[in-house]
Amino acid sequence: MRGIAGARAQQGRQILPAIRTYAQTAGRAIAQARRMHIGVPEPVDHPAARRQPGLILFGAEQGFAGAYPERVLDVAANDFADAHVFLVGARSVALARERGLALAWQTSLPSRVAELSGLAIALLDALSEYLARAGAVPVTMVYPFWTPGQGLKIIHRKLLPLDAETVPATGSGPVPLSNLPAAKLLEKLVQEYVFAQLCEAAAEAFAAENEARMATMAAAKTHIDGKLAALQLEERLTRQSEITAEVVELAAGARFRIHRR
Questions:
Q1: pTM score over 0.90
Q2: Is 18's pLDDT higher than 90?
Q3: Distance (Å) of CA 83 to CA 106, 123, 251, 252
Q4: How far does CA 112 lie from the centroid of its chain?
Q5: Is the peptide bond before 161 cis (omega within 30 degrees of 0)?
Q6: What is the pLDDT of residues 69-113, one digit of tens each?
Q7: Burial 213-251 (b: 16+ CB within 10 A, else e)
Q8: CATH number for the domain running over 2-217
Q9: Where along the chain do its domains lie?
């Protein structure tokens, strides 16, 4: 199990550079598209729904990962009451239900790296459906991040609305040519950028869960080894006491026979 977790964690780390490059490319495309001086159409206002921002939470799929599943929920617990929650990870879903936390949407965290893009697509579809009803509500991602030697920390990242400082309208030269209306082009590029952010968070969560599992299993092995050493020492001491008692009994019996003669 430890070897499988290690291999999966490594696979998750290996795809992160490509995902980040993809996100940077989408970000540069958005920056160039913004130079057309045409923004995305104003969103439909839904005042009643604006009280529920979106919260995308990447949790744990399985157990035996120490306190990792609980820590993710602990960090985001205060946001559950007011948010429309998209929760990823079967183990975290079960824990959330035990705590009585309300979930609007839930799914499993895939066990294979190749399936993470499918998870991001499903999340993007669910998010788009919610935003179509709720309007331009803010959306935040919460996901685990594992640093070798330092362990787990929880990342909060604003996903929407897109921060203009993240993709400023920069660049020189002619304005890019496009066969799409500028507003439509920008909308599509924003979807690509959000998709890349979801893929990155999913990959980080995938790697972090397996790293946490490796750390838990290593700690368990250390504990078992220590317990085994203590039991072996106790066994030797007990055996030594038994041998000493046998020797004392034999010596006492020999002295008794000598005195009888």
A1: no
A2: yes
A3: 14, 16, 80, 81
A4: 14
A5: yes
A6: 888 888 887 777 788 999 999 999 999 989 888 889 999 999 899
A7: bbbbbeeeeeeeeeeeeeeeeeeeeeeeeeeeeeeeeee
A8: 3.40.1380.10
A9: 2-217
